[in-house]
## 1
Amino acid sequence: KFMGAASGAVLGAPALLEGAKSYRYSELESRIARRDFRGISKQDLPTPVLVLDQEIFERNLRHMAGHCKATGIHLRAHVKVHRSADIGQRQVKAGAIGLSCATIAECELMSASGISGLLWTAQPVGINKTQRVAALAKKDPTFMCVADDPIVVDALNEAAAAANAKVRVVVDIDVGIGRQGTQPGREALDLAERVMKSKSLALAGLMGYSGRASHTSGWEERRRVSREEAGKLLESVSLCRASGVPVEIVTGGSTGTYNIDSDQGWLTELQAGSYALMDSRYAVIGSKSGSPTYDDFGCALTVLTRVISKKYPNKAAIDAGNKSMTQPSDVAKGWPGVRVERAGAEYGMLLWDQAEREPKLGDLVELIPSNLDMSVNTFDRMYVCQGDQVVDVFSVLGRTGPPQK
């Protein structure tokens, strides 16, 4: 299930070598521009490209939405894995109350696409970012950002006052990742009170996120680590509330812990993001059912590549290399026994000792990436497919950030 029927039928024989009908590049781009996808198949695409399996993708959205509804927890889905307004809008339509973003650029782009309820999960440092936060908060009062330092709180308050805006702030607490966040307990309370006393800021809640639990192998061990991290967050929530500091939002969680955090009731919302697309790293963390694979969600995203040279036994060159973020931990979907290696900026290698089938010159091969964030960052679009047919194209936004307005 997790691999999205990875053992299913392999793509057809290489049309390029057979002389079958194929669209010229200029015609393909023209049809995409006018959103006419009739008759366009994977064989027509200029590899390497991102391919999104529509059926698996929509099933992932339904599963997460159904889980959140059943457990009474909100979803503020993280867009860092896809940075696509097309996907973000579908996540909100499926039930998400908003989106979490890794950069202010992502927030601006999602806001420009009409999405509200945005949370920037890094604090704004520097006048450029504090001013952009204030501008976005003035445009959309539902927008929030995090802070873990009194210096940032004061700078943000100043920028908000200058813009005649009110910025909602979530206090970021370090629950174990050691990357950012104020210390749990008294330090977190002090910062929350500082936000409350700032005239141009409003305290929205507390955040505690650590990727440590998300990819912990084994569901029981993952639950133990998640509880350990949650304890630090809950300590701060309890102290704030006991001190008269209202905490409306308690946010955190991840795809790997979605059915742990929600069941324990320590969060009001989840920041899960990878669930929509998934990658091969999640395949090995294990499910609640005891399965060694994580089959709660399917791998909807692949990098479509083509065999461009087959001159040596037991290996073939493909056109997805370092620039496509090809990794040895990627999985060649539907090619049992075939391994993936990097071989240069625009080259990857498929290797095998014994395989059920050997890739041939011109064959299309789909790679399940091992890191969604990195793989998506190298492409400008995703081709949405039903089986072999292209049915839509989603844009990937903000690889360098939008113009600052």
## 2
Amino acid sequence: MLRSACLLFQCNDRVGIIAELVTFFRDSNVSISRFEEYTDNQYFFARLEWKGDHPWDDASDFEAAFSGVADSFESASFRVHFFDKPQKLGLFSSKEPHTLIEAINRCEAGEYPNTEICFLISNSAEIQRYAQRHDIPFHFVKTWKDPKRHEPAQMELIQQHKPDLIGLARYMKILSAEFIENAGCPIVNIHHSFLPSFIGAKPYELAYERGVKLIGATSHYVIPELDQGPIIEQDVIRVEPGDSVDHMKKIGRDVEKRVFATALEKALWHKTITYDNKTIVFN
């Protein structure tokens, strides 16, 4: 059976790491199809991908075989993913659908490996029609100012569906630290990154008044500190003289949906390592 998998590995940097990793795969009669490495402040990061037959039945089998190699490195950690294992993506959304639609379309186009959207949770009933079009389980959960009033119902759904990744597709509520800790999987968010001075409900209007020249978006992993999580993807687009607020909103939505969908893709292809509150992103 033709199978593909990837290994994410990190440890303190020293001479000979690449040679030892390659030797392990050579001795296992496995051909590496892609090898990327990066060093930052004397710390080594690598992502290896292989395709074809290999001797490991699953991730646990690989971990048992590779642990001895990893133990020979200082401060080493690793994780492996076999792409024939199905992945579940859960989505949260509020009223604006553009990032949600882009994520759904990319998933259906096969850009997310072996991935199904296992639920769509929203505090807007208007979003249900997008779930119905694509046969995605939809759950309307009314939200309140106090997250303790709605997060238990959301957490119950998460525990029921057991997603491998959660994406906040312009979900306009702040998650509590307890919710983030108990979600059981990484959470990816999207927000305006190049409008840091323009908080509130009308950032584009404020940006227009200030005459900004660039607008953009950032997608990041969610941590308890608001909008401080490790960054996965960013992009900007130039504002031209004479652009109206409505046009700025339009091009801003284009950037947001592209950045969010790409961040999900990076996460689902297991191309990210978080370290020291930043993200190493492999190509």
## 3
Amino acid sequence: MYDACRQHVWAYAVSRAGRQVADEVVSETFAVAWRRLADVPDPALPWLLGVARNVLRDSHRADVRRESFAYEVGRWTARPAGDIAEDVAERLAVLRAMATLPEGDREILILVAWHGLAPRDAAKVVGCSPAALRVRLHRARRRLLRAADAAPGDRGQEEKQQGARPGTRPQVGIIGEEMS
């Protein structure tokens, strides 16, 4: 199977993503085929090209997540020309809000935001289905936002006490809201 299909899978990967990633796509495709050897139909090539397509899609998603995460981390670590104390206070508020969450919520948020895992992969880590993980992630994000809004000393809380409409809260976009 490998000898008969390798060149076709490689050509497909080159046509979709370029030479720089083709070898990696071929390796991952045949690793999947080896793990699922009993599922490989005859002829194998269409199935292998479908696997290669999924590998490329997953690779693209991972790249997008990494770029998004790098952007968020850059926003949090960059030294703006403005008030650094304000940024530090925001980060501390997010950390305080994270500390109030149950361990399970923190674990899911860290797996998705810090480690960049897709919900499917995070589900494997915590031992639940991907659908259950998505629900838990949604609820954990919601609890984090509530905890950030309710944090003592939060600017939004101070504005509420002064009768103003809360306009700002600690930025928690780093928790991977766009990842589904």
